[in-house]
Amino acid sequence: MSIVLSIIVNIYYNYLSTDKIIKISLDILPISIILMFYALVTGLYHGLVSSPPDYQMGETVRIMYVHVPAVYGAILCYFVLFVSSIFTFFKKSYLAYISSRAIAPIGFTLTSLGLFAGMVWGYPTWGTWWVWDARLTSFFVLWLFYLVYLVSNYIYDKKNSDANFIHLINIIGFINVPIIKFSVNWWATLHQAPTLIRSGGASINHGMFVALMWMLGFMTLFILSVFILRLNSWHFMKGKNK
Amino acid sequence: MISSGIKYVYIAYTAFFVLLTLLFVISIRMFLTNKKKND
Questions:
Q1: Model pLDDT, residue A195
Q2: What is the rounded CA–CA span in Å between residue A175 and residue A182?
Q3: Which of A50, A67, A166, A241 has the fewest CB atoms within 10 Å, counting from its CB?
Q4: Nearest Cβ partner of A120 from B11, B33, B35?
């Protein structure tokens, strides 16, 4: 992991400038949007038509194809926020600053969606919308970290000042990510144990697995497309003062 | 409590597409507005 990060940093400082990255991102954007719609249509076909219902949960299992991508997206966005917060806080990097501003609303939306879809799936399956078990609570804490960052930005934007310390909160908040992942292993939870990333390989029906992979692909491309749009918007706003 | 519960599937998918569409449209508008201002 550290080797990959050091390669990225090396490439960034030696071969790429912010303007080059912005230009490359705009070249990628149309391809990303086209592939995103292709993955969405294919994922929906597999998720709603070709994949089977669950033998216990029936049709409600299809909520998995929106709940899991939303949760995966929320954590992916937090990883981007974490890395960009490190470079903003310690290096005062302009690109990292606009990246963190661009990614946070996407992560917040996906966290809210992950929580909501999970509740809607939980009610017919568990008989309750919400329980304060380890997985649900730790994911709710992730939602709070996003909220604190967005509200702080809103307040400091009104004052026309930059609050660099908020990025330190994002860095500390990353401790929560492994807690979310391993909460179902460490504590007894109502939420089910891991299905995809577990020792012994994935434990899921092939049709469901294919649908889930397409929807995860769609989510990755959606985040990339919206991130590029927002990154460029922030560059247009802040670029002249960088 | 376990049932086929198709209405829960509708609720979850509606929320998913409404929120993602909003985010996508707002981001495109933000991009175009700022691009116009920048030009």
A1: 72
A2: 12
A3: A241
A4: B11
Asked if pLDDT for residue B28 goes beyond 90, the answer is yes
pLDDT for position A162 = 72
The pLDDT value given to residue B7: 92
Spell out the SS3 assignment of chain B.
Answer: CCCCCHHHHHHHHHHHHHHHHHHHHHHHHHHHHHHHHHC
The interface predicted TM-score of the complex, written ipTM, equals 0.90
Predicted local distance difference test score (pLDDT) of residue A15: 66
The shortest CB-CB distance from A113 to any of B6, B16, B30 is to: B16
Q: Are A127 and B1 in contact (CB under 8 A)?
A: yes
Test B9 with A62 for CB contact under 8 angstroms. yes
CA distances from A148 to A43, A87, A106, A144 (A): 33, 19, 14, 6
- CB of B13 within 8 Å of a chain A CB? The answer is yes
- Whether B10 has its CB under 8 Å from any CB of chain A: the answer is no
- Check residue A206 and give its pLDDT: 87
Domain membership of residue A105 (yes or no) is yes
In a domain, A13, yes or no: no
The domain tally of chain A equals 1
Residues above pLDDT 90, as percent of chain A: 62
- Residue-number span of the structural domain to which A76 is assigned: 46-52+62-237
Q: Are A105 and B23 in contact (CB under 8 A)?
A: yes
> Would residue A175 count as lying in a domain?
yes
B18 lies within 8 A of chain A by CB: no
Q: Measured between CB atoms, which of B1, B15, B37 is closest to A117?
A: B15
Chain A contact set for B9 (CB, 8 A): 59-60, 62-63
For residues A211-217, give the mean pLDDT. 95
